[in-house]
């Protein structure tokens, strides 16, 4: 049986497919919420919907192939019509922490290329202030220990990510440092500070990178849109 959280993820993932129209090129995000979007999209493709996707991770690429979603190389498209992605935290200013699955760099590149960017989350991801979830920071492997020390000096506790007892290596061949800050009052300045650190490739702070957030709740969902009234969908 599916957990309550999984039911919420499924509901918002499937809802996001309503934003996709025939002929669109779609940025396919990563994670378990995006999985449901892709499964539904695959079903629509099998009934004739003509779309193509750019995957933001190898796992997403695998799912796209499994669900029959046609893919196109990122290098072959200049813009995407829409991107649909998950997140680890969303604040009320539409800023996000992403990278819990380790795909933050490709996700950022894909989302940045989209004209419309939709985020799908369950309500446990909504926060007053970013930072309870450690900020994933992608760093080059060479000299990562020194990069970590530099990050300590800007106020965090970085932890090298391990998965199944092994050092996690991103799809780009880099390590991830999960950086716990005690308080992120200004995510924009923090992002700039981290980016200036030698050895850092990208941060999981996605700032001003979405206009629509679909939040799955116990009895429905809330659709948050920048500069538009909140929409509530009840079951
Ligand atoms: O940023 C991500 C992967 O790098 C995911 O979108 C994020 O971790 C949310 O995942 P899920 O939908 O499984 O909760």
TrEMBL record:
Pathway: Carbohydrate degradation; pentose phosphate pathway; D-ribose 5-phosphate from D-ribulose 5-phosphate (non-oxidative stage): step 1/1. Substrate binds at residues 30-33, 85-88, 98-101, 125. One of its GO terms (biological process) is pentose-phosphate shunt, non-oxidative branch. It catalyses: aldehydo-D-ribose 5-phosphate = D-ribulose 5-phosphate. Gene3D superfamilies: 3.30.70.260, 3.40.50.1360. Homodimer. Belongs to the ribose 5-phosphate isomerase family. This is Ribose-5-phosphate isomerase A. The lineage of its organism: Bacteria, Bacillati, Bacillota, Bacilli, Bacillales. The gene is rpiA.
């Amino acid at each position: 049986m599916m957990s309550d959280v999984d039911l919420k993820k499924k509901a918002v993932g499937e809802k996001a497919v309503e934003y996709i129209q025939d002929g669109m090129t779609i940025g396919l995000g990563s994670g378990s919420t995006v999985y449901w979007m892709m499964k539904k999209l695959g079903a629509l493709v099998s009934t004739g919907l003509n779309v193509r996707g750019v995957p933001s991770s190898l796992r997403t690429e695998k799912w796209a192939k499994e669900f029959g979603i046609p893919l196109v190389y990122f290098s072959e498209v200049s813009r995407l019509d829409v991107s649909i992605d998950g997140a680890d935290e969303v604040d009320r200013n539409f800023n996000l922490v992403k990278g819990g699955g380790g795909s933050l760099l490709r996700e950022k590149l894909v989302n940045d290329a989209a004209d419309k960017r939709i985020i799908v989350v369950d309500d446990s991801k909504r926060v007053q202030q970013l930072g309870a979830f450690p900020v994933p920071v992608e760093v080059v492997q060479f000299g990562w220990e020194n990069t970590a020390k530099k990050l300590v000096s800007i106020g965090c506790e970085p932890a090298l990510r391990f998965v199944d007892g092994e050092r996690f290596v991103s799809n780009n061949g880099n390590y991830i440092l999960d950086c716990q800050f005690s308080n992120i009052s200004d995510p924009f300045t923090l992002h700039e500070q981290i980016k200036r650190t030698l050895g850092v490739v990208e941060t999981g702070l996605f700032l001003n990178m979405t206009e629509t957030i679909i939040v799955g709740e116990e009895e429905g969902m809330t659709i948050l849109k920048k500069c538009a009234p909140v929409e509530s969908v009840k079951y």
